[in-house]
C-alpha cells in the first residue's frame, strides 16, 4: 500500500515539474519597459511583509527581469511594482507617438508618355511620404500578366529610379511597373506600361497569291504586310527602299523585264530590326498566246445607270501593237454595243448610259488586235432609289413606341434616315416598318434615303402625337418683396408636365398701364434671372404684378406682387423738439420713405449710423448747448437720398 501511494505522489510531482518547465520556456508576452534611467541609490532594507496566513505559502521564484505586463497586473495589492516595469495603461501613455504603417507611401509619377522597347532604359520618377529608414533603398519591379514580378533596377536612395526593361519581355503587351522600399517594406501603386513590338514583314501579291504571270511591259502589284509598332522602314531584294511608312499593308508596283522573285531583305522600326518572310514571283511571258477573260463578275452583277464602275478582266499573252480593249453591252437576244472608249491599259472604267432602261443585260470585253471576246456575264441594271414615307398618323402614350412605314423602289438594299435621327440600313424588303419613340409631338420626314445607286429621291411625312401630362409652372416664394428698379433678381420656379423642344420661359411684369410685358430672362434649372424695369418717372414706389409664362405649350404661373422702388429717391425726415439741462440727453426721431432698407445716414453734428432697418429710428443726443439737428447725407438700398426737417434741442444752464 505504501509503495502504491509513493508511486502516485511521484507521478504528480513529475507532472507539476513538467508544467513549470513549459511555463518558463514559453515565449513571454510583449513587454512595456520604461526608458532606462540613472541607477538609483541602494534602497534601505525594508521590514519583511507579514505573511497572509489564509493563503498557501509558495517558495519565491528567482527574479525574472523580463516581467510581463500580465505578471505586473497580477501582483497582489499593496506590493510595490518593480522599478523597471509599468502598468499597461501607464506604459501606453509614455510610448512615443510613432508613425503607423499607413503614413508611409510611394507614388509613381505620370509615365503614360513612355513608349519603349524590350531591352531599353527608362527613368521612373516617384514621390514618397513618411520617415523611411536612412538605410532604406528603392527598387523598381516589372510585373507581367500572370502576376510574376522581377526587379529591373539597382537600389537607389531617392527619386528617380533608372531601370532596364528585360530584353526577353514580349513587345505589344501591357506590363505593370512598381517601386518597392526596403525599410520598411512599402509598395507603390502599379502603373501600366505597354512595350513596343519589334517589326515583321511579309511579302506576297496583291491578291494574296505567291506568283503572277504578266506580259512584257505590264505591271504587277506587290503587298508588304507589316506588324509591330509603326512607322516601319524596309528594303526589297531589288533594292527598293521604303522609309518611315505608316501604310499597312504597303503596296508596291513593279514592272520587271524578266521573271523575278521579290523578298523583303530587312525591316526595322523604333525597336530595331525584325523578321521577314514570304516571296512574290513575277513571271514575264515574252511570247504567250493572247487570252481574254472576265473575273469577279459577281461584283458587277447589279449596276446603276450613270454610275461609274470598273470592269474586272484579265488579259494575258502577247497582243499586237496598237491593241485596244472595249466593254460591250447587249439586251437579252440583242446585238452588243460599245459602252466604253477603247483602252490599252487593261484597266477600264465606264458607266451605263442613261438611255438603257432597268432590266437584264449581257456584258463582255473584246480586244481589237487580235480580235478576242471574253465570256459573257449576266448583269442587271437597276434604277435609283425612291423612298416614300407613308402618311401615317399615330397617337402614342407617354414612353410608347410606334411603327412608321417606308416604301422603296429601285436597287437595294436600302437605307433611310428620318428627321429625328432614327436610322436603319441594309433594308431588304419593301415596304419596311421603322420603329420610332418620340418624346414630343413630332412631324416625321425623310432626311436621306438611298440604295445600291447611292442617295436617291425621298418624300412623304407622318405625324405622331404623344399624350403627356399637362404642363404647369409654379412661381415659388420670392426671396424679397421689395426691389430697386433696374436691379437684377432671381425668380425661383418649378415646372411639371412636358414642354416642346422650342419652348421658351419668360418673366413678365405689369407696366404703368397694368399690361404684362416681357422682361429679358436668363433661365436656369431652378431660377430665372431678370432685370426689373424702371418705374415711371413720377413714381417713387409702386406695387407691380409679376408672373412666368411659357410659349409651347402656353402656360402661365400664378401672379405675385412686387414693390418696385425708384433709385435715388429715399427721403429721411428729422423731427423733434426738447429742452434738457446741461449734461442730460434726449432722443430725436428720423422717418424714412421711398427707399429700400437698410438706411445709412449722417447727422449735422457728425453722428453716423451705418445700415439700420428700423423705421422710424430714434437716436439719443446730448448736446452741450442748444443745437439744431439735420441730415447731411442719406443712403439706402436703392441709392442716395435727401434729408429734410430738423430737430431742435434746447439746453438750459
UniProtKB/TrEMBL annotation:
Biased composition (Low complexity): 40-49
Keywords, ordered alphabetically: Signal
Stretches the record annotates as Disordered: 24-65
Signal peptide (UniProt feature, chain positions): 1-21
Protein name (record): Uncharacterized protein
Organism: Dyadobacter sp. 676
Amino acid at each position: 500500500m505504501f509503495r502504491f501511494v509513493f508511486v502516485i505522489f511521484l507521478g504528480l510531482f513529475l507532472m507539476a515539474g513538467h508544467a513549470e518547465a513549459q511555463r518558463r520556456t514559453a515565449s513571454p508576452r510583449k513587454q512595456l519597459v520604461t526608458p532606462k534611467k540613472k541607477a538609483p541609490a541602494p534602497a534601505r532594507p525594508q521590514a519583511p511583509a507579514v505573511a497572509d496566513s489564509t493563503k498557501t505559502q509558495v517558495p519565491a521564484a528567482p527574479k525574472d527581469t523580463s516581467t510581463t505586463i500580465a505578471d505586473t497586473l497580477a501582483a497582489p495589492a499593496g506590493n510595490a511594482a518593480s522599478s523597471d516595469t509599468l502598468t499597461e495603461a501607464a506604459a501606453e501613455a509614455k510610448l512615443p507617438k510613432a508613425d503607423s504603417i499607413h503614413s508611409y507611401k510611394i507614388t509613381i509619377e505620370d509615365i503614360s508618355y513612355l513608349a519603349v522597347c524590350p531591352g531599353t532604359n527608362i527613368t521612373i520618377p516617384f514621390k514618397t511620404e513618411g520617415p523611411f529608414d536612412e538605410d532604406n533603398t528603392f527598387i523598381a519591379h516589372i510585373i507581367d500578366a500572370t502576376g510574376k514580378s522581377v526587379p529591373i533596377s539597382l537600389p537607389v536612395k531617392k527619386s528617380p529610379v533608372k531601370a532596364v526593361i528585360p530584353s526577353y519581355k514580349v513587345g505589344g503587351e501591357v506590363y505593370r511597373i512598381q517601386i518597392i522600399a526596403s525599410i520598411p517594406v512599402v509598395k507603390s501603386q502599379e502603373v501600366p506600361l505597354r512595350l513596343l513590338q519589334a517589326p515583321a514583314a511579309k511579302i506576297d501579291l496583291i491578291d494574296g497569291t505567291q506568283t503572277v504571270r504578266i506580259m512584257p511591259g505590264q505591271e504587277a502589284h506587290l503587298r508588304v504586310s507589316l506588324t509591330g509598332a509603326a512607322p516601319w522602314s524596309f528594303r526589297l531584294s531589288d533594292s527598293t527602299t521604303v522609309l518611315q511608312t505608316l501604310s499597312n499593308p504597303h503596296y508596291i508596283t513593279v514592272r520587271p523585264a524578266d521573271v523575278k522573285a521579290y523578298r523583303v531583305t530587312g525591316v526595322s522600326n523604333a525597336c530595331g530590326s525584325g523578321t521577314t518572310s514570304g516571296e512574290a514571283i513575277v513571271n514575264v511571258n515574252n511570247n504567250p498566246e493572247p487570252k481574254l477573260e472576265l473575273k469577279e463578275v459577281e461584283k458587277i452583277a447589279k449596276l446603276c445607270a450613270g454610275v461609274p464602275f470598273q470592269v474586272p478582266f484579265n488579259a494575258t499573252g502577247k497582243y499586237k501593237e496598237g491593241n485596244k480593249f472595249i466593254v460591250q453591252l447587249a439586251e437579252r437576244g440583242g446585238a452588243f454595243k460599245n459602252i466604253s472608249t477603247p483602252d490599252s491599259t487593261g484597266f477600264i472604267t465606264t458607266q451605263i448610259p442613261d438611255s438603257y432602261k432597268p432590266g437584264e443585260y449581257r456584258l463582255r470585253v473584246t480586244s481589237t488586235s487580235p480580235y478576242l471576246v471574253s465570256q459573257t456575264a449576266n448583269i442587271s441594271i437597276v434604277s435609283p432609289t425612291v423612298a416614300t414615307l407613308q402618311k401615317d398618323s399615330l397617337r402614342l402614350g407617354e414612353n410608347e413606341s410606334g411603327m412608321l412605314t417606308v416604301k422603296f423602289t429601285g436597287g437595294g438594299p436600302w437605307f433611310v434616315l428620318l428627321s429625328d435621327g432614327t436610322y436603319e440600313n441594309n433594308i431588304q424588303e419593301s415596304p419596311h416598318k421603322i420603329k420610332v419613340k418620340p418624346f414630343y409631338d413630332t412631324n416625321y420626314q425623310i432626311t436621306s434615303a438611298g440604295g445600291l445607286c447611292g442617295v436617291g429621291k425621298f418624300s412623304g411625312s407622318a405625324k405622331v402625337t404623344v399624350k403627356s401630362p399637362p404642363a404647369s409652372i409654379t412661381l415659388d416664394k420670392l426671396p424679397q418683396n421689395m426691389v430697386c428698379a433696374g436691379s437684377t433678381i432671381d425668380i425661383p420656379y418649378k415646372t411639371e408636365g412636358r414642354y416642346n423642344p422650342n419652348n421658351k420661359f419668360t418673366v413678365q411684369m405689369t407696366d404703368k398701364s397694368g399690361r404684362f410685358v416681357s422682361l429679358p430672362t436668363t433661365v436656369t434649372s431652378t431660377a430665372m434671372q431678370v432685370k426689373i424695369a424702371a418705374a415711371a418717372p413720377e413714381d417713387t414706389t409702386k406695387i407691380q404684378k409679376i408672373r412666368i409664362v411659357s410659349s409651347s405649350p402656353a402656360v402661365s404661373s400664378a401672379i405675385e406682387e412686387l414693390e418696385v422702388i425708384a433709385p435715388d429717391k429715399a427721403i429721411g425726415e428729422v423731427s423733434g423738439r426738447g429742452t434738457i439741462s446741461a449734461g442730460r440727453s434726449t432722443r430725436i426721431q428720423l422717418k424714412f420713405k421711398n427707399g429700400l432698407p437698410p438706411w445709412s445716414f449722417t447727422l449735422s453734428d457728425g453722428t453716423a449710423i451705418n445700415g439700420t432697418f428700423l423705421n422710424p429710428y430714434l437716436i439719443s443726443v446730448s448736446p452741450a448747448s442748444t443745437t439744431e439737428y439735420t441730415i447731411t447725407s442719406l443712403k439706402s438700398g436703392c441709392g442716395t437720398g435727401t434729408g429734410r426737417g430738423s430737430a431742435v434741442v434746447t439746453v438750459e444752464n
